[in-house]
Each structure stands twice: as structure tokens, then as C-alpha cells.
Design goal:
Length: 104
């Protein structure tokens, strides 16, 4: 991939450190990784989707689980795992200074 006049874009070489996290409300277990305080990646299994109280509530109302944005209770459990040191935020990617582009 090229940007800024043909220079290759910086590749993100970080490897997510996935960690098992269990929801404090329903016990659904997922794998989670944090790339920043705002960016969380969650890998749901079919079993976790079935166990999740919030997903179950949405599905019972006829909403497909694929359209459920997430689970607030699990989000709280992930935040608690970060605060307790069980889930680490991946170190930031070192990004070179942006190029100054002069219009032609």
C-alpha cells in the first residue's frame, strides 16, 4: 500500500495480546485485546453469544446477534481486567512524522 506520493504506508507490527475475559454479569467468556484505551478487539464464540444476557435479550426481540453492537456488561468486565492488570494495552506503534505534501 502506498501513500504520500508512492512511499509505503507504515505497517502496524503490533501483535495483539489476547486474553480470556469472563463477563461479570452472565459469565460469557471471550478473548479480548486492547490496542489503546479506546480500541478493544473482542472475539466472540457461538457459546459466548448464547450465554450473553444482552445478546439473548436482543435475539428474543427478533434482532440478529450479528447486528448487536456489543455488551455493556462485558465492556465493564474488560475495563476491570485492564485496571487489574490481567489485560494489557498493546504498546503504541511508533509512527514516523507525517510527510509534508506540496500540491503540484
Amino acid at each position: 500500500m502506498s501513500v504520500n506520493g508512492g512511499r509505503p504506508a507504515a505497517r502496524d507490527e503490533r501483535r495483539p495480546a489476547f486474553c480470556s475475559v469472563e463477563c461479570g454479569r452472565c459469565g460469557a467468556g471471550v478473548l479480548a485485546a486492547k490496542f489503546s484505551p479506546q480500541h478493544t478487539t473482542v472475539q466472540w464464540s457461538a457459546e459466548a453469544v448464547r450465554a450473553c444476557s444482552e445478546f439473548s435479550a436482543a435475539v428474543s426481540l427478533g434482532r440478529p446477534s450479528a447486528l448487536v453492537e456489543g455488551c455493556g456488561s462485558l465492556r465493564d468486565s474488560i475495563d476491570a481486567a485492564v485496571m487489574a492488570g490481567r489485560l494489557e494495552v498493546s504498546p503504541p506503534l511508533e509512527v514516523s512524522r507525517p510527510l509534508e505534501v506540496t500540491p503540484p
